[in-house]
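Repro case for the chain-ordering regression, as requested:
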Amino acid sequence: MSETGELLTQNAVGAEAAVRKAGGKRELSEGKKAERKLGLWLCAPAALVMLAVTGWPIIYSIWLSLQRYDLRFPDQQAFVGLENYVTVLGSPYWWQAFGITMMLTVVSVAIELVLGMTLALIMHRTLVGRGLVRTVALIPYGIVTVVAAFSWRYAWQSETGYLADLFAGQTDPLVNFWSSMGIITLAEVWKTTPFMALLLMAGLALVPDDLLKAAQMDGASAWQRFVKVMLPVMKPAILVALLFRTLDAFRIFDNIFVLTQGSQGRSSVSIQAYNNLIKGLNLGIGSTMSVLIFITVAIIAFIFVKLFGTAAPGSDEEGRR
Amino acid sequence: MGERFPGRKHGQRRLIAIAGAVLVAAGALTACGSDSGTTINLYLAPEESFQKVVDKCNAQAGNRYNIVFHKLPRDADGQREQMVRRLAAGDTEVDLLGLDVTSVPEFAEAKWIVEWTGANKQQASEGVLPGPQATATWNGKLYAATKNTNVQLLWYDAALLKQANVAVPTTFDEMIAAAQKLKSMNLPYQVLLHGAQYEGMLVHYNSAVASANGKVISDDGKSVVMDAGAVKGLEVLKKLATAGVTSPSLDNAKEENVQKGFEAAGSQAAFELNWPYVYASIQKNNPERAKNFQYARYPGVNPGQPSRTAIGGFNLAVSAHSKHQAEAFDAALCLRSKESQKYSALADAFAPTIESIYTDESPMDIGGKTKTMREAYPMKEKLLEELKDPAVRPLTPAYQNVSTVLQTHLAPFSDIDLPGVVEKLRKELADALQSKGVLP
Amino acid sequence: MAIQTAPDQDQWTRPSIWTRWGPKARWGLIDILVIAYAIIPVLWIVSLSFKTPSTLSDKSFIPNEWTWDNYINIFKTTDFIQALINSIGIALIATLIAVVLGTMAAYAIARLDFPGKRILVGVSLMIAMFPQVSLVSPLFDMERSLGLFDTWPGLILPYITFALPLAIYTLSAFFREIPWELEKAAKMDGATPGQAFRKVIAPLAAPGVFTTAILVFIFCWNDFLFAISLTSTNESRTVPAALQFFTGASYFEDPTGTTSAAAVIITIPIIIFVLFFQRRIVAGLTSGAVKG
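-- result from build under test --
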């Protein structure tokens, strides 16, 4: 469950364009009423499903986060106000998981951007086997994350792995803190780089060829052409890709779950919320974490929008023109 | 498979029909058999031959009930997670539960399982070793019937010990010294044990604590003790892990890694701490090495004082949500009867909880071959010796939290932060017992 | 670059070799690197799935002894077959519903003027960004009390929800490509907006709908978090979740071989999609951005 985000913005551009187009082109008032009605009817089922599955649970989640509610101690359920928040925010474990998640997010998104850009240029420019490269690059995108994670786990596991002896260290690479963090990052980067590349490739297609040619004529080097001509044109695509990859990376769960089970201080916030909720059956603490994750994601999105001027999905639609 | 949501299934079928041919096949496979008798749904960890025991009990029950064996994951954490989720959801399709020895208090406290009373209790307790029986009891009431127990031994390569002229170690210190001596002679020397961050690692800790006469949690499961013995347990494990005699994979090793590590060609192992199943395994996988594969009591802590070892195993409990409790009790009694336990012992090397089985030498037919306890369990006296004086892991309804906290601070063994960790453990275990605080 | 390093190369032939063979060879080499990057982890899990138990830990990238046993074994157990049926069934049903609902909504968003459109766009974007783990606890508790826990609908519902934004946006991007004059023409001929949608636009939109269906299917097929949180038995557990619960023949045996075989099986549909519909998928993933 990962790529929705990126898709969204990409297509949001289109959707909004369509919205504008539709808005600008008024139909004759004869069909106006019917059109409104049809529009509402067509959207109603999708809207209802989305609201039922997310809207109510969010409210319920906030409610649960204000309770002491452990399924194993059913008699002790009680309203405790913000006590769960005090507990979670005062816990070194939460902050450790938070730090780990942040670190993984920043490092993997940075690597993805560089590799993704390289891959995008390759897919855009290659003279031989363009279709083949694009096809193959889709494999990491499409493959089930858990399958890929198992492949990495078995590759590094000391009994089975062809990579396990790569670092002739004294500890198992999946146990050692830094090597296991590296492996988690590798698994994330491997899976999502091709997708990042596809998004950036879409941005590359926007760079006018004659502009590049003109720059070349003027004696600009390949690097200068990349920095001065391509990057500015691609900026919106890059920022949007970064925003959604960041939000997506922050939710990291599958890879850590399969590779290390979050043991030895390598929990992400998602893993920790899962553990408190599903293992600990502590709905109060688990929901508190859920709410905190949600708030963090909202803050990240806000920072991107305000600081970098990323095209805010659904907000300043005119601002991107 | 009962029809819990008949409407749902119907709706599903209709959609399946739309969705295409693949799903038509799916519909046929998910279809439930005709509900003629009572189905007893058993959730238990996978055991190779347990289906045979189930079949036998089903035959015995005639038309009264039919036990269906649903396999749970292999690891204790995974098993618990699956059962707890069903029970918390109030699932009436769960009748019988195979609980790990540490889970009974939690399930009893949450009112997910029912008490054993009267004749059932009588029958479930008859001739059962006291250690296993304690794991099925909470607040003085019996909440489960013991199915099998388990206890670890010290396994070693007798040829190596002979070559280096060292005695079979009886304490952790002696074991470390012996391994160091082997290492200095350039012989295989490693001590293999499972030290991955999971429930299994606590078997070693609890054994070491009990052998040092210590306690982590009070007997009533309500307060933290963490006495000198509990600290000693930490020291023992740290010393072992930092003495240069363990394998590099210690911190990621579970039971099977330990066993494979000993059996592998070119193994550097001389000692192994593991369950008795390794005996049959090495006969099959490395017959050459099996010839020198010997066993002794699990190492102790204080010289001259025999170890006390943490017991494992499973207990059968009846779900409070079950609609067929009477039949479930009956089924449980059959599945853990003397005959069934003996069958499991001979076929799958699961140690019985009924004492008399250990001395019962009458042969039994196992898959066309007759076997005796002596053949399957040459080490049975040693096992019984440990089982009669065992350590029981802390019994508390919040065991999962206690276990998680302990695992977090004990893994990896080599990095146990002594003495600072003791205060942290006291504080966090106190929170854990009340299910307060954050699980790492 | 490699070619340029040859120091004693003839001054005159070098440029012509460079232009004739150099770029192609260079790109060919780069292509090979990309291909290796993408498929080595896949080949590794395939290799593991064909190894015999005794060679499983030989750490060799290519099996020394080949066997089909792992595949035979997983298809002998009901656990895997049932999980596969669940995966296929749940993903197909969720895809079907999400695409139908998504098509309706995308058409309305792209073509019709009605109140609340912006809100719908905004809300679905928020859902796409939403940390799914935040929903696990309330959904678990709600499904528990509604009796949806560990059922097909219990998974289908959240899948539809998180697939809908994807479907709506991919589809509305495709809908912009459709020649809407035809719709106008149909309306001139007296068709209602509804008829125009059904008779004229829907057939034209079919390729876009198909592409969207592939993307949504991949998305549902991929899910792990909901699959392990909202299921607990074979009733509804999908393959990604079931992989975690594979068991060896005996209690302590590691199921590496069978896990790998099952992993390969669920990768097959993905490979088929990628091989046959590469262009569509790339178009689906990037259309909005390219034309935006």
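Ordering looks correct now. The longest helix of chain A spans residues 92-125.
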